[in-house]
Amino acid sequence: MTFHARIISVLLLSAILLPGCVLMRGVFLGYPDHKDIHRFPSSEIAAGDECFEFKTDINSIIENVKVTDWSSGSPYFVTLDKLNASRPVRSMLIIRNDTLLYDFYGQQTTADDVNPSYSVAKSFTSALIGIAIAEGHMESVNQQVIDFIPELKDVPMAEKLQIEHLLNMTSGFKLKLKTDAEIYYGNDVTKALKWVEFEHEPGTYQEYINLDVQLLGLILHRATGKKSSEYLSEKIWKPIDMCSDAIWTTDKKGEDKTFCCMGATALDYAKFGRLYLNNGNWNGTQIVPKDWVEKSVRRDTTNGSGFGYNYNWHIGEKAYGDYMADGMYKQHIYVHPEKKIVIVLMCNRDDKVAAERVRWRHVFRQIVDQL
After folding, report:
1. Which of 125, 219, 226, 285 is the right S-S partner for 230, CB 3.0 to 4.6 Å?
2. Are 24 and 35 contacting, i.e. CB atoms less than 8 angstroms apart?
3. β partners of residue 342
4. Of all residues in the chain, what percent carry a pLDDT higher than 70?
5. What is the torsional sign of CA 254, 258, 260, 263?
6. Per-residue pLDDT at 321
C-alpha cells in the first residue's frame, strides 16, 4: 500500500473511531475528494495586481510524444491526450524554457478552475519556513519546536524535537489514526496535540506523518504572527505574479491545514515549480533563499532521513536529477532542472486498482526523454 493509500485508509478508519462531530463529518464526507476544498472553511491566498504568463506554443508536441502509464501491464504507448482522457485527469501542463508546450483539461474543468492538491501544500509550507528563517522569525532549522509549541513540553522526548525533524518527517511521532482524522475532519487542529506520543527519538527514523507539517504551520503562525495563507500571499503568491487567488482549507477556528488542502489553478502551481527550477529566484528577485532550495531538493540520508524525501519534497532519480511536490490522488509539480522542464498534473480520485498501477512519475520521465 502506498503512503497515499494509507492516508486515505487512516482518515476513514480514524474518523469512525473518533466520537462526536469528527465521526459524523468523516462518515458523511467519506473519502477525501476534490469537493472538500469547498466543503470546509478556507482562507484566501490573495494574488496581486500583476499576472505572469508563460509563452505559448500550445500542443506543439501533441503528435510526437508517446507514453505509457503501465496500467495495462504492457508497454502500450499512446498520445498524451489519449492517456489523459483514460484517467481522471483534471489538468496536465508541460512547460519548457518558460514556454507552455502542452495543456490538457479534463473532468469538465478549465484553466480557470481551482484544483485541490492535497500534500503538494507541504512543499509550499517548506518554502515558507525557509523564508521565515531568513527573515529572523526563527533561529534555524535546529531550533526546538517547544519554543513555539509549549503545549508539548511535558511529552517525553519533546525537548529533542527540532524544526528540521518536522521538515524531514523524522519527528519520531507515533502514527495514530485519530490524529490524522482530527486534523483533516476536526474543528480544531490543535486538539491533535494532546495525542502526541513519540515512538522513536527525533532525528533517527523517517515516517510520513501529516502532523509534522501541521505543526510547521502552527510554528509559522506563531513565529510570524500571520496565518500561513497570509504569509504565502505576501511572500510568494504576489511576488511571483500568480494570476488568481487561491485557497487554503482551515479548521473552524481559522487555522490553515498546512499538511494539505490548497486549491489553485494549474498554471499558478506551475509558477511555483518555475520558482524552484530557478533556485528560488523570480526574474532577478530572490524569493526563497537559494541555499534553502538547494538543500530542499538535494538527497540527504543523514539523521534518519530517507533516500527519496527531503524538506517536504520528493527527490527523484539520480540519472534525471529531478524532484517533485506530490499529493494524494496523483497531484504533482514535477521539475527537471537540466532541461528546464516543469510538468503539472492534477487528478480526481481514480479507481483504486488502477491508481495503484499508474506510474505518473515514469510518464514524466518519458516526456522528458522525448523533449
Report:
1. 226
2. no
3. 95, 335
4. 91
5. positive
6. 96
